[in-house]
């Protein structure tokens, strides 16, 4: 293969990876060659193991299909840097897939050109994340991948599930969306036995089984999967109760506080109630500390004890 042909085929592969489908004429125009040359180059890519599908006719075209192995990807400089930084964040964060992200990052950094490695290093050292608490349950990358495919294909799955109370149950569901919240991953699915929407924590899922049966996609109530899951999580019973009556409008508190949209209830134009209830006393303290204005608190005794202890430690440190 000549160097010109190699460069042209790499450009062709890059085009195929950026769009769902290309016509032969469009590719020929981009590559400044004939349609016949495009066909020959497509055949060469196939011989190298790239699964390129083609359709004949006026509306036909070429598309890079999924194969049995992941083919090499061609990335421009900005894409390579973005992926490396994202993997670095996942490797050191709370996503639950740190080990997998670290392996992928090692492979990518090994082949990064020196000019890009410098950019990645600069971003990694200047951008940091804040972890407020111990890491929670780990997400299984294999389970995540399997569920993602099932959501895409709308395939009914069965699995074992451990409920909040520790009871074991079997579930048969139509998976729809995966949602991550902090350290935890959730599956939003329609439970076929209960004929209702359910939210499942992935760290409680076991013995996943494919049924091979595919069904049409169901519209999520409200057309916002993340908001639906957030609302369900907020409505779930919690171990510790903490309700803060805040002297500010709900819009103001929502604009200045993260991840509280579904737990803010307006009372009037200048007052709202923030439900900071949680299974974790630490998270309750963090939520209350993040409120932008004064508030009064109605909470369980164990919450008040935890908050007083933290406040006393702070006062002692200042004296």
Shape: elongated
Report the span from N to C terminus. Answer: 77 Å
Radius of gyration: 26 Å
Instruction: Report the strand count.
Output: 11
The CATH class assignment of the largest domain is Mainly Beta
CATH T-level topology of the largest domain: SH3 type barrels
How big a fraction of the residues is strand? 15-25%
Write out the strand line-up for the largest beta sheet, numbering strands in chain order: 6-5-4-3-7
How many domains? The number is 4
Q: What's the pLDDT, averaged over the residues? A: 81
Proportion of residues in helical segments: 40-55%
Helix/strand-derived class?
Answer: alpha+beta
Runs in which pLDDT lies below 50 for 5 or more consecutive residues are none
Keywords: DNA-binding, Transcription, Transcription regulation
Protein name: DNA-binding transcriptional regulator
Pfam families: HTH_11, WYL
Organism: Streptomyces xanthochromogenes
């Amino acid at each position: 293969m000549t160097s010109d042909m190699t460069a042209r085929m790499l450009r062709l592969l890059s085009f195929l990876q950026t769009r769902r489908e290309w016509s032969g004429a469009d590719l020929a125009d981009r590559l400044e060659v004939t349609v016949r040359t495009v066909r020959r180059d497509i055949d060469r890519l196939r011989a190298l193991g790239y699964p390129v599908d083609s359709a004949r006719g006026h509306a036909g075209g070429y598309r890079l299909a999924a194969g049995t192995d992941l083919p090499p990807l061609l990335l421009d400089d900005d894409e390579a840097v973005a992926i490396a930084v994202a993997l670095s964040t996942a490797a050191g964060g709370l996503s639950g897939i740190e080990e997998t992200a670290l392996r992928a990052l090692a492979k990518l950094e090994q082949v990064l050109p020196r000019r890009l490695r410098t950019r990645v290093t600069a971003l990694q050292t200047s951008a940091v994340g804040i972890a407020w608490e111990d890491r929670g349950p780990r997400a299984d990358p294999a389970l995540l991948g399997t569920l993602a495919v099932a959501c895409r294909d709308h395939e009914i799955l069965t699995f074992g599930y451990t409920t909040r109370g520790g009871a074991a149950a079997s579930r048969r569901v139509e998976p729809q969306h995966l949602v991550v919240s902090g350290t935890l991953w959730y599956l939003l699915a329609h439970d076929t036995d209960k004929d209702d929407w359910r939210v499942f924590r992935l760290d409680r899922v076991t013995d996943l089984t494919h049924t091979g049966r595919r069904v049409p996609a169901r519209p999520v109530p409200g057309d916002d999967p993340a908001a639906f899951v957030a609302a369900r999580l907020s409505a779930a019973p919690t171990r510790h109760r903490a309700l803060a009556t805040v002297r500010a409008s709900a819009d103001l508190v929502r604009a200045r506080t993260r991840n509280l949209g579904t737990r803010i209830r307006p009372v009037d134009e200048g007052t709202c109630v923030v439900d900071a209830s949680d299974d974790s006393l630490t998270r309750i303290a963090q939520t209350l500390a993040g409120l932008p204005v004064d508030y009064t608190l109605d909470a369980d005794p164990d919450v008040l004890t935890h908050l007083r202890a933290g406040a006393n430690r702070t006062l002692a440190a200042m004296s």
